Amino acid sequence: MRGAYASTVISADAGDVWAFLREFGNLHEWLPGVSTCEIEDGAPLAPGVVRRVDGAGGVFRERLLTLDDEERTLTYAIIESPLPMRDYHATCRAAPVTDSGQTFVEWYASFAADDPEKIAKILTRGVFVPGLESLRKRFG
After folding, report:
1. CA nearest 110: which of 85, 93, 126, 89?
2. 91-115, pLDDT tens digit by residue?
3. What average pLDDT does range 125-131 have in this prediction?
4. CA-based diameter of the chain, in Å?
5. Selecting from 2.40.50.140, 3.40.50.300, 3.40.50.980, 3.30.530.20, what CATH number does the domain 2-139 have?
6. What's residue 11's pLDDT?
7. Is the dihedral of CA 39, 7, 57, 16 positive or negative?
8. Which Pfam families match (predicted)?
9. Domain residue ranges in the chain
């Protein structure tokens, strides 16, 4: 399986960044290109909850697999996507930068695809980098 990866440093406290990032149903508030994000099934922050994400790329349905407040990580899987990929699992993590009070945020995914380099480029440049840039601006 191939992957996609992006990271950034945000000039804000890790607890504040994580409090926003952990909200599984708020993707439309910070990810460019997402018009709506709705919880379809389950409790909003409970593993197993499904969100429907509508945007320029089409409809995505994603299931929250883990939410770990101590480690400040969430992991989700895509269960429906217009992209030609399968077995997609992604993690977002917000870690404190202890010497500056900033937050290191990373977003990475693994998946299978017939053209993994193309999908990795779409995810990294079209989703992860703009999303992290938007988060940085929101807190900067």
Report:
1. 89
2. 999 999 999 999 999 999 999 999 9
3. 97
4. 43
5. 3.30.530.20
6. 97
7. positive
8. Polyketide_cyc2
9. 2-139
